[in-house]
Design brief:
- The structure holds 2 protein chains of 2 kinds.
- Chain A is an all-alpha fold.
- Chain A is built from 14 helices and no strands.
- Helix content of chain A is 75%, strand content 0%.
- By secondary structure, chain B is mostly helical.
- Chain B is globular and about 85 Å long.
- Chain B is built from 13 helices and no strands.
- In chain B, helix 4 packs antiparallel against helix 9 and helix 7 crosses helix 9 (215-244).
- Chain B has a domain at 94-306: Orthogonal Bundle (MetI-like fold), CATH 1.10.3720.
- The chains are: A mainly alpha, B mainly alpha.
- The interface between A and B is large, with 47 and 59 residues.
Chain lengths: 354, 307
Amino acid sequence: MSDAPNSARLEAAAGSGGVARSGRPRSRAWRRFRRNRLAVAGTVYLGALFAVVVVGLPFSSSWYDVQAPRNAVRHPPARGRVVDCARYERAQQSSRLGQAFAFAAPAFHRAAAWWGYDSIGRSVLFRCLFGFLISMAIGLGAAVLAVTVGVLWGAVAALAGGAVDTVMMRVVDVLFGLPYILMVILFKIALETPLDRLCGGRGQLANVVLLVVAIGAVSWLTMARVIRGQVLSLREQPFVEAARALGAGRLRILVRHLLPNLVGPIMVYATLVIPQAILQESFLSFLGLGVQQPLPSLGRLAADGVQAVNTFVGYWWLIVFPCGLLVTTLLACNFVGDGLRDAFDPKSQAAPLA
Amino acid sequence: MVLRRIIRRLLWGGATLACIYTVTFLMVVSIPGNPFTQADRNMPPEVVRALEARYSLDNQAAYFVEFLAGAVRFDFGPSFQYKDWTCTQIIARALPVSLLLGFSAMLLAVLVGVPAGVVSAVHRNGPLDVATLGFVLLGISLPTFVTGSALLTVFAVYLKVLPIGGWGRLSHLPLPVLTLSLPFMAYIARLTRVGMLDVLSSDFIRTAVAKGLDRRAVVWGHAFRVAFLPVLSYLGPATAQALTGSFVVEKVFSVPGLGVHFVDAALNLDRGLILSTVLVYAAILIVLNIAVDLLYAWVDPRIGEAA
C-alpha cells in the first residue's frame, strides 16, 4: 500500500457497489425500512414491550414463582385486591431491586389481577414478563451463535475454495440430513453434565444455556450456505477485483469490502432466527424438554396453558395472555425481519404489474 | 443421461447416508450411560452385563458394523424401550401413518399456499395481499400445539363434528392434516410471493406486458414457471420434515406416527431406535431431494444442461 490515501478512496468508491443515487447504501436502506409501516410498527411494539419488561423486572424476577394458593385459577380476583399479599411482600423484601422499586408495586398488582392466576396461584402477568425476557434471551443467544458460526463457516469455505470448500459444504449437507429435534435432544443430554458442572450447580441457568447452545447449534447451517453463496458472487464483482488490483490484501478485502456487503443478509437472517428459536423452545417446552419449572418462558407458559385449558376450557386467561404475547412477539420479530430484507434488497421494490 | 444423473445422485446419497450414520453413532456413543445402568433400576451387575451383551452394548465397534450390516437388509435390531418389538416393526407400523399425514399436509399446503402467494404478489399491497400476509405471519408465528388445540376445541369439543383424536378412520384426518400444513402453507405462500415479485420486475415480463399479452397469461404462463423454482427446492426438505417431524401434531391428536419415536428414542437413549429413525429420515430426505432435483431439471431445462 504505497499510495494509501488515494487507493483507499478508490476502494471506497468501488465498495459502494450499486448506483449511488442519493446517500450511502446503508442510509438508503434505513430510509426504505422507515417507509415500511409494518416493520416500524413491529420495532415500536418490541421496544415498548422491552420497556415494560425492564420496568417490571424488579417485581417479575422475584414474584414469578410466588405461589399464593388462595389465588389459584382466579380471574380477576375480587376488585383488584391482592390476596395472599404477605407472600409477595416477603419475596419483595428478599430482593434488593424489589425494595428499591416498592413504590410501583401496587400498580403492578392491579395489573396482575387482570391477567389472572394459574392453578397454583402464580401470577400470569409476572410469569409472562419474566418469560418474555427468558424467551428473548434464548432467541438472541441462539441468533448470535448461529450467525457467528454460520458467517465464519460460510466465508472461510467460499474464500478457501477447492477441496476445503467441498469438505466444509459436505459437512453442512450431512448435518442438514439429521433430524433437527433429535439432534437438539441429543445435544441437551450430551452437554447436560459438563455444563451443569460449569455453571456450578445452578441447574436452571445451565439449562437455559443448554437450550441456547442446542438451538443455535442446529440453526447455523442455513446461514453458512447463504453467506458462502454471497461471498462467492461478491468475490467476482468488479469492485473486489478493483480492490485487489489496487493491492489490497485478502484480510482487507474480507473486512473492508466483503463484510460490509454481508451486513444486510446477516441482519435479515439474525432477526429471522430469533422468532424461530423462540418457537423451537416452545416446541421443546411442549414436549417437556424446554425451560425447566419453575422458570417461565413464553413457550413454556403457552404449553402449560394449553394443557390447563384442555382439562377445563373456562381457564381462558391461562392461554390467551401467554399465547397472545408469544404470537405478537413473533409477529413483530418477523415484521422487522421482513422489513430489513426489503430494505437491504432494493431489487424487490418496483414491479410493473403491481 | 437422466439415468446417469440419478445413479450419480444415488451414490452420493449413499455416501451421505453413511456419513450421517457415523455422526449419529458417534453422538449416541459419546453420551454416557444406557437404559440398564440408570440409578433407579438397581439391577445386579451380572444382569446388567448380560443385558449389555444381549444388546451388544459391551463392544461399540462390533455394534457399529453389526447394525450397519442389518440396516442394509432393513433389519434394525431390537429396541431397548419396547421389549417385544424390533425397530423394524416399530417403524413399519408408524411410518405409513406419518407418510399419509405428511403427504396430505404437504399437498394441502401447496394447493393453498401457491395460489395465495401468486395472488398476493399480483395484487401487491392490496387488501388481498395484506390478508394473505396476515395469514402467512400467523401461520409462521403460531406454535402448532396452539393451533392444534384451538382447532380441537372448536371442531371436536364445541361443534362435535370431528373426533378428538386417534387414528384409523377418515374423520381422524382433517384436523391433524390442517394443523400440520399451516406453517408449511404459510411459508410456501411467502416463498411464492417473493419469487413472483422478483420475476414480475424482470425484463421479459415487461416485454410480455408491453406486447399486449393477457395479464393472466403473463402471470401464470411466464412468471409463475420461474417463480415456482424456489418453492420446488423447498418442497424436498419440507416434505421430509412434515413426514417425520410432526411430533407435536402427533402428540396433540394422539396419532401413532413416527414423530413420537424421534423424541422418545432420544429421551430413552434407545440406541437402535435412534439410529434407525435417523437413517429412515435421512433416506427419505435424500430421495425427496433427488426427486426435487429431477423435477427442477424438468421445469427449468437450463439447469439440466448445466449439470
